[in-house]
Design brief:
Helix content is 29%, strand content 32%. The chain has 8 helices and 10 strands. Strand 1 and strand 2 form a beta hairpin.
Length: 244
């Protein structure tokens, strides 16, 4: 049976195809790493032309939600170390190439949403949350401290051991265990003074200037799923993002 592609704003048909595919991805009907049906099959399913279907898929490939493999087909993107490094990690040495950081667990505890977390995660102030802290090293030196806030209701059952012992990236854990796929992030940067706790982990003096990156991770339904505040020692490192 054909899926309804009606758009409330009267947008182009291919956008309706995109929304339908995104809903299949969000619901788990199409899973990470899975080969999606052929363009012909999908065109029949959605009752659209091959050209309309292809335009929808092209844009999803452009946005790295789907991945084309020459001679094999189109697959649902799966989070892994390479995807993290090239699409979501933006701290690099002032001299030298980007490399994958060593991530070390600091703490994991239950908390409640403050005003910032509530606004970023679209939840009420005081909502039960998880607060997780990691420290990240590059070339043997701690360069970043990540403070992650999650809505406890969306990640019910997540334990410190499960988080600490994950076999892959954090976003892969969200995807594989909770069915939550991060497809994009919004980041805001500002200069601040290092707190006592962060300074200790970064091995700098409290009050020294640091870069803070406030990142909100967005899922396939365009909903915020994670607030991550990264505190960066920029004495020998800097923020780098390649805009495509």
């Amino acid at each position: 049976m054909a899926t309804s592609l009606n758009s409330p704003d009267g947008g182009p048909l291919y956008k309706g195809v995109q929304r339908a595919l995104m809903e299949q991805l969000a619901s788990g009907e199409l899973k990470p790493g899975q080969l999606i049906p052929s363009e012909r099959q999908l065109a029949i399913e959605f009752s659209v032309s091959i050209g309309t279907l292809r335009k929808a898929i092209d844009e999803l490939v452009e946005n790295r939600i789907l991945i084309r493999q020459q001679g094999k087909g189109t697959y649902v993107a799966s989070h892994d170390r390479e995807r993290l490094l090239f699409y979501f990690f933006h701290v690099v040495p002032q001299k030298g190439a980007k490399s994958y950081p060593l991530v070390e667990f600091v703490f994991f505890h239950k908390s409640t949403a403050d005003a910032e977390a509530a606004a970023r995660l679209n939840i009420a102030v005081g909502t039960p949350t998880l607060h997780i802290r990691n420290k990240l090293s590059l070339q043997g030196a701690v360069v970043l401290v990540d403070d992650i806030t999650l809505d406890l209701a969306r990640f019910a059952g997540l334990s410190a051991a499960q988080f600490k012992e994950r076999p892959n990236t954090i976003y892969n854990l969200y995807q594989e265990v909770f069915g939550i796929t991060v497809v994009r992030t919004e980041e805001r940067l500002r200069a601040e003074a290092a707190s006592i706790d962060h300074a200790k982990l970064l091995k700098i003096k409290p009050g020294m200037p640091v870069l803070t990156i406030r990142r909100t991770a967005i899922d396939m339904r365009d909903e915020p799923v994670e607030l991550r505040i990264s505190t960066v020692n920029t004495a020998a490192h800097e923020y780098f993002a390649e805009l495509l």
